[in-house]
Amino acid sequence: MSRWRSIISFLLILLTAPSFAQSKKQLLVDGIAAFELQDYQGCIVYLDQLIEKSDKDSMAFFYRGMARARLESYSEAHIDLSKAIAIGPRYFEAYKERGKISALRGLHTQALTDFNAAIQIQPNYSDAFYNRALVYLQQENYRGAKDDLSKVVQLNPMDVDALYLRGKTYLSMRDYEHAMADLNQCITMYDKHILAHKERGKLKAMLGDYLGSIDDFTAAIELKPNFTDAYYNRAISAYNLKRYANCIEDMDHVIERDASDAEAFYYKGISHYKLGQKEDACPALSKAGELGKFEAYEIIKAYCR
User: Fold this and answer.
1) Distance from C-alpha of 231 to C-alpha of 253, rounded to nearest angstrom
2) Which of 119, 180, 198, 286 has its CA 20 to 30 A from that of 296?
3) Do 245 and 198 share a domain, yes or no?
4) CB-CB contact of 300 with 284 (8 Å)
5) What is the CATH number of the domain that holds 95?
């Protein structure tokens, strides 16, 4: 027994010797590798060990903060990223990541301060411009968002998401010409961009091109068969073309996924009414009224007797 104790004691000495213990550099490499593999808990375990050895490594705090953010531990992530910035005041990626966390928490002023700092340190940091644009959009600062997204497109002409978002921003600004140009370019570059098809369909419908809008909504639905918003918008275009049966079919898809959509019941009911289908029209209109679409009651009073 004493012999085995001696062997165990010897192994413990070996395992704790410098040649066996992980170096700080190796812990950082392993932590980053775990993060890249989306093993966020593993990343935190490695970096906890590193930070216990030395609390002056800005990258350790940065990656542990990002791992915590991915696990939605936003308060702890914010603390880690702040520590990374305190150690390395020009760590522009840390400013950007901390800004993203503030934006997620609805702290727009703090988010903008961090994105501004990242851009001041790195003037061509496209990711900071993109995320600042997202905050501007939440604030309905469309001009600011458009300018930032234009910078992203200038830096990365193949960035289809920036093109899409700028097109959507132009749409909010009622600049339909530029909106159409961006959405067209986005779809030309990547014809499977679901949201670009949906937004272009909405723009075409606004301009009175209901047939064209149906083509785009159909493309979006083919790419994403449960895309409720595309079904709804395609139904509205069908209604405007007096294709009432098509409108009913698409609104049924909407109602199947969201039985609280008053507008869907309303247009379903009106479409049945237009087709002379009283038995189907009246229950749908009644449900629309129950859900708050009170215009339905005017039709009910005149028609559903």
Assistant:
1) 7
2) 198
3) yes
4) no
5) 1.25.40.10
Residue 193 structure tokens: 């961009």
Residue 213, helix vs strand vs coil: helix
Same domain, yes or no: 118 and 131: no
Encoded tokens for 128 = 């900071």
Q: What is the pTM of this model?
A: 0.85
Pairwise CA distance, residues 264 & 248, whole Å: 9
Q: For residue 260, report the phi and psi dihedrals to the nearest 5 degrees.
A: -110, 10
The reply to whether 48 and 119 lie within a common domain is yes
d(CA 13, CA 34): 28
Which residue bears the tokens 């002409």? Answer: 157
Distance of CA 173 to the CA centre of its chain: 21
Question: For the segment 151-197, what is each residue's pLDDT rounded down to a tens digit?
Answer: 999 999 999 999 999 999 999 999 999 999 999 999 999 999 999 99
In 3D space, the residue among 8, 7, 77, 18 whose CA is nearest the CA of residue 47 turns out to be 77
Cβ atoms of 171 and 199 within 8 Å: the answer is yes
| Burial grade of 238 (CB within 10 A; 0-12, 13-18, 19 or more) | buried
Between the two ends of the chain, the Cα-to-Cα distance in Å is 97
State phi, psi for 54 to the nearest 5 degrees.
-155, 125
Is residue 53 within 8 A of residue 24, CB to CB? The reply is yes
- Give one DSSP letter per residue of 52-81, joined into a string: HH-S--HHHHHHHHHHHHHTT-HHHHHHHH
| Same domain (yes/no): 35, 114 | yes
Looking at the structure of the chain, the number of domains it has is 4
CA distance 251 to 255: 6
Angle (CA) 251-257-261 rounded to 5° is 60
- At 7-26, the pLDDT tens digits run 445 434 434 444 334 688 99
For residue 291, give its domain range: 259-305
